[in-house]
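Exercise 7.
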Amino acid sequence: MISHTTLCRLEFNKVLQVVAGHARSDASTAAILAVAPLQSAAAITLSWQRIEEIRTLLRQRISLRISRFSDIRPLLDQVRPDGAILSPFGLLEFIPVLGSLAELYKQLSPRDDIPALRLLEPFPVAFSDILEPLSATLDDEDTILDSASRELAEIRKAKRALAARVRRKLEEFVRRHETAIFLQDDFITIRSGRWVIPVRMDSKGMVPGVVHDVSSSGETAFMEPLEIIPFVNELENLSAEEKAEEIRILRQLSAWIREDADRIAACFTTLVELDRLDCIARFSEQFNMAVPELNQNGALRLLSARHPLLMVMRAEQQDATPIVPLDLELSTSQVLVISGPNAGGKTIALKTVGLITAMALSGMPVPASPSSSIPLLDALLVDIGDEQSIEQSLSTFSAHVAAISKILEQAGSRSLVLLDELGTGTEPLQGAAIGCAVLQELQQRGAVVLATTHLTEIVGFVQQTSEMQNAGMEFDSASWTPLYRLVMGEPGQSHALETARRYGLPESVLQTARALLGDAGTAFSNIIEELRQKRNALADELANQQQERQRLDGLAMSLKQQEADLVRLRQETIEKARADARDTITAARREMNQLLEQFKQDRRKETEVKFRQKAEELEASFAPTGQQPPSADALQPGSIVQVRSLGREATVTSVDQARQKVRVRAGSIEMEVPLHGLIIGSSTAGSKPRKNAPEIKMKLQSEESANELNLIGKRVEEALIELEGFIDQAVLAGQREIRIIHGIGTGTLQRAVREFLSRHPQISSFRPGEPHEGRDGATVAELG
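Solution. The predicted structure, written as tokens, is:
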């Protein structure tokens, strides 16, 4: 448990008072001021989750629809007994409560992005069967409206009509000559609930009626004329009926509330909790607070931590001066001692650690980086401030010792101990000895300890003890002012003389003090200054290395970008080459199909010649650049050559040097080929074609396989190009039927082949293969 006294010393109550400034009711304010550290990690985490869900809604400009409301719990206690009736004012208090619950139900129940808030028990309920009649019954002035019931509306209507009739009769009465001469004035008023006219006291016997009042001067009698008494009596009867109907309405409304009193009370608790969470969320959002990590190993890590009350004060004063953040990290059984100048921020640092820890353990976001880590504690123990007590006859030192004694009784492995001005209040050497012993005892108990001191003996002890570390509040030696920045690993100097000068101590006194300080104090200050200079040099070197690393990272990014640009340029070039090749192939196919159709119709020799010439032109367009065709002298009958248009080797049968043509035989096909369409032997066959250019093949099959094409294992685009060339060769060879083997697989190649055959002008029909032909793994086509 963390005591209320400890929280007050850390000024946690002041933070809660700031948060409570957003509350919509006194009940919410009391709930906020009662916030205290929670005992379980699950409860802390759930609180963080609910607050963060509300903050997420706030960032989406969605505010919880909670109106200002009163604490209705006393009214619920009042209405619980049978027959109890609440006053109109009491009933009016329920309208904002039930209205807020209805709005929250409407706002939150459809959402699926608030899982933690949906775990609230009970979830807000819309008590429409009570809220609607309440709203129709009472106005903002706690007056019962005519719309409360039909009977009440009729009674009030009759009452208004009768009152108007009474007024008209009185007006007629005072205007009569025989009456007007006895009147003190001509106005009409009401006295003791009766309608009266002012009659002169000496003439009251001249006007028939009943005297209900006399003026303070005794000169005027307020008389009710006899002729309106029946009407006024009837008006009073209506008023009694009106009062009875109002009581009946209030009794009915009170009964409805009584029936649901338990549910309303439970939902009121939820409303207060939502208002409390919303106040914390708004406070956290205003100062950009974050949810830290929660650990079970006792480690404390604060990054970019700021004192929340200092932030509030700056905001109220509209001071834009940035707050110097606090960074520190401590593990279990570790001791950190902070030294440094007076008014340098040591105590603020200590309170910042304690206050942020208390806020986090209370389920509140904290003014620190989300990478900060807070330990789940059994005890937060502090000795901060001057505890001198006149009533208990305790000096400052005695009070500190008493507080530390209690801390030692409670400290354990899950404790955070904060000690301010350790060892002060008595003779320095003995105070330092006690301080060192206390630090050692707390360390042995496994507590995490954060202490401040001015005593160099304690600083030296910490420097020589393992798992203890010094830290100092940085001081600008040039301007002699504190920088309020915590530097880990090196002690700080008190700079008492400079601080005294800053606060007006005479220079003569300072010179005497400096002379009395002696060489020992100067040597210690010089050692600390040397450590500070080394730390600054290391920091500068680290900054330079960081800059160099950033430069190298920039170069690496630039090289990666250049590589990506090259890859993209290469891909664009490939795509352009492919597009150009596709355009060339498409045009060639169109022209060659026309030639094939003409060849089929007339079988003329010149058509075949044109076809061969076109094939040679195509082959030449895709011939590797820089490769020279063979000369006629290099060829003789029997030479083996590679025919580009066929994509295969052939044997030379004769050479026509005059026409620069060669007759070759490939299987059963014999044809004439120009020299530029040949490559000598198989040695040149392996030369690399132009990269990414499609290979144009009009492959002539051997006689025994000229009507069959195997496409298994090929991509669709590659297979269709080969199929088109195969059909052209089959037409030239006079085939009437061909078989295409494509397999079954996923069916993609099969569908592509059959769709292609359905569009091809040379195909008259096609069918799946018979059992001996491969069934659906093959397609047999008829050439027309």
